[in-house]
Every structure is written in C-alpha cells, then in structure tokens.
Design a protein that fits this description.
five-stranded antiparallel sheet; alpha+beta; 299 residues; 9 helices; two-stranded antiparallel ribbon
Length: 299
C-alpha cells in the first residue's frame, strides 16, 4: 500500500514538473506579450510606407493601384534636372511670357510668381518648383533641359526623360504626360512607385536640402540687370515643423488626384518614406501621413 501511494505521489510530482515545463515552453508563466500594433486606418484611397534604409515594406493600401498624382509629379521633374550631366545649378534661365501664360490658362495653377524677363538660376527654379509647387518653374525647367528647336519639342523631350527615368527605376505603374502634374489623361503612378521614386530622388543632396526647407527667398536678376528680392516661397508640405523628424517630400492635389502627399522622416537613425494618394482633404492627407509614420517607426 505504501509503495503504491509513493508511486502515485512520484507520478503526480512528475506530472507537475512536466506541466510546469510546458507552461514555461509556451510562455504561459512569462511576462505578458506586448500589445500587437494596430494597423492604421487612413482616409486616402491608397497608401504605402517603407523603411528607406532596407527597402522593407511596412504598410500597404491599394499600393499598386494607378491614380492621378497631382504635383507629386514634380519629384520626377526635379530628379530629371538633377540627373543632367555637368549640371550647373547657378546657370541662369530667362523667364518667358509663355510660362506665365500657362499659369493663367490652367486656372491660375500653383506658381512661384516668376516675373517675365527675370533671370533665375536653376537652383532657384528647383526651390520654386518644390516649395510653392510652381508650375511656372516646372515649365522653365522643362524648356531649359529638354532638347529641340521649339519649346513644344523641348517640353516633349523633357517629359520623355521623365518616363525614361521611371522605366529605369522599374516603375511599371508610372507614366507622365506633363512636367508638373497637370495631366492630360495619362499622368499616373501608385503609392509604391511614388515612394520608390522619392527614395531615389532623396539620394541627391541638393534634392534633400530643398525638400526639407520650410521657406526660401530668391534674389533674381531683372531684365535691366538689377536685383529683385522675391516674396518668400513657403513649402506646401504641412509636416515640416509639425512632425518630429520630417525631412520632406512633396504635396499634390487636383480635381482627379484629390489630396496627395509623399512624406519622409528620420528618427533615431531610421528613415521611413511613403505616399498617400487621393485623401479627402489637405488636413486628412497630413493626418494620414502622420498615422503611417507613427506606425512605421514602431515596426
């Protein structure tokens, strides 16, 4: 009888030990796991975020659906200019009446208020392109860096360079038919493609400096040789100064595009970069971007 009871006790003790071991193995007796991250809900129809250092995808929402991009197109405009061989950023471009007429013809499109006859450097035009989203600056750059004997030919050539760069980057869902985002039915991209485009553009130090600048004042040369101090250009990117670590990149909007934002930020050595397309308002595109960056930095 004693032997039987002792045997039962031994078996029970072994069972306790085995059960405890199983509990430790499964983590049942360890600290409770951290709460899983909740994937954010955004107003935008499309979104994408990646780790800029590793290229790892951190968030997607209709990331490969083609949509109108508005002035986020100007990221590629700047990229094409900055990729020109032997680029002289101090070269001067004379502002033509055609550039200001273009603004008027397109319902007073966003512009840098460039003055006809003024000589403006390529560097200044890039600031005018990316901060106030100047379509006049975009036109001047396309005219300057396209090839051909007529303005129309040069513009067509420049847009061709934009599409070549997109192909070279492997952006299969991207196509441009304009130098500024005022499309003619075939100007589109996706959140993933735009993010990869911006990531490539951000490798250029001049581009990085421009897109993180909140305000810039250009001093241009008048047709009589004097100096004109332009009204300051303010960056349309609402994240600069309102989101810790924000370093760019570009807003976009339009009747078809709705409200778009390509964004990037760096915290503790980690840079995240992404895009929201077709958000419902200028306020919501910024809110969307902040939600996605908060989520990305925690992953």
């Amino acid at each position: 009888m004693k032997t039987g009871i002792k045997g039962v006790r031994v078996r029970r003790a072994a069972a306790v030990i085995i059960t405890a071991g199983a509990m430790f193995a499964t983590g049942a007796l360890t600290a409770a796991p951290a709460t899983a991250l909740t994937v954010p809900t955004i107003a935008a129809k499309g979104g994408y975020v990646m780790n800029n250092g590793t290229g790892r995808t951190l968030y997607t929402k209709a990331a490969d659906t083609r949509r109108s991009t508005g002035s986020t197109t100007k990221i590629m405009t700047a990229k094409v200019v900055l990729s020109q061989p032997n680029l002289n950023l101090n070269a001067k471009v004379t502002i033509q009446k055609a550039y200001s007429d273009y603004i008027v013809q397109n319902n007073w499109a966003s512009n840098a208020k460039l003055i006809v006859g003024d000589k403006v450097t390529v560097r200044q035009l890039l600031y005018g392109l990316m901060l106030p989203s100047g379509c006049d600056a975009a036109y001047a750059l396309a005219d300057k860096f396209g090839s051909g004997s007529t303005r129309a030919a040069r513009v067509k050539s420049f847009i061709g360079k934009m599409n070549k760069q997109a192909r070279d980057l492997g952006l299969a869902n991207t196509h441009f038919d304009s130098f500024d985002g005022i499309g003619r039915g075939a100007n589109y991209s996706t959140p993933r493609d735009l993010t990869k485009m911006a990531s490539s553009a951000m490798k250029n130090s001049t581009f990085r400096s421009i897109v993180k600048t909140k305000k810039y004042t250009a001093k241009t040369t008048t047709r009589t040789g004097g100096t004109r101090t332009m009204a300051p250009w303010t960056n349309t990117n609402p994240l600069l100064g309102t989101y810790t670590g924000a370093i760019g990149v570009k807003t976009g909007s339009g009747p078809e595009a709705k409200y778009c934002l390509v964004f990037a930020a760096t915290r503790n050595g980690k840079t995240v970069i992404g895009t929201v397309l077709a958000s419902t308002s200028s306020t919501n595109r910024a809110t969307d971007a902040k939600k996605l960056m908060d989520y990305a930095f925690r992953r």
